[in-house]
Amino acid sequence: MVAILNENKDYDIYNKVITLCDALADAEGFTTLEKRLVSVGLRHGTNSHTSLHWKGFYSIKNELEKQLNKSIYKLLPNVEDSIYTNIE
């Protein structure tokens, strides 16, 4: 998962969708961005650039949701199921 705010400005819509999809899925299926980022952070650790990466994902998510005029989660099947599972 690589998305830094400054890098995102040059992404086209295709690359933004792919980047966000990578951030919204794990081995179990779709999940929330918050849960995915915390899971990756717990497994791989964080560093001084982590918050920039996370802001980049939220920037993409917000931009796409503005274009869609709805939450991205409304398009992802069974995403709500991930709310009730443990982070591993």
Give a written overview of the molecule.
The structure is a single chain. By secondary structure, the protein is mostly helical. The chain has one domain. It has helices at residues 5-8, 13-23, 33-44, 50-68; strands at residues 25-26, 29-30. The protein has a two-stranded antiparallel ribbon with strand order 1-2. The model has no long low-confidence stretch (mean pLDDT 89).
Whole-number count of domains: 1
Helix content percent band: 40-55%
- Quaternary structure: single chain
The secondary structure category is mainly alpha
Strands in their spatial order, largest beta sheet: 1-2
How is the main sheet built?
Answer: 2 strands, antiparallel
Kindly report the average pLDDT value: 89
How many angstroms separate the termini? 17 Å
The geometry reads as flat
Strand portion: under 5%
Report the C-alpha radius of gyration, rounded.
13 Å
The residue ranges in which pLDDT falls below 50 over 5 or more consecutive positions are none
Q: How many DSSP helices? A: 4
One letter per element, helices H and strands E, the order comes to HHEEHH
**Beta-strand segment tally:** 2
Fold blueprint:
Elements: H1 5-8, H2 13-23, E1 25-26, E2 29-30, H3 33-44, H4 50-68
Antiparallel strand pairs: 1-2
Helix pairs in contact: 2-4
Labels describing this entry:
two-stranded antiparallel sheet; 88 residues; 5% strand; single chain; mainly alpha; 2 strands
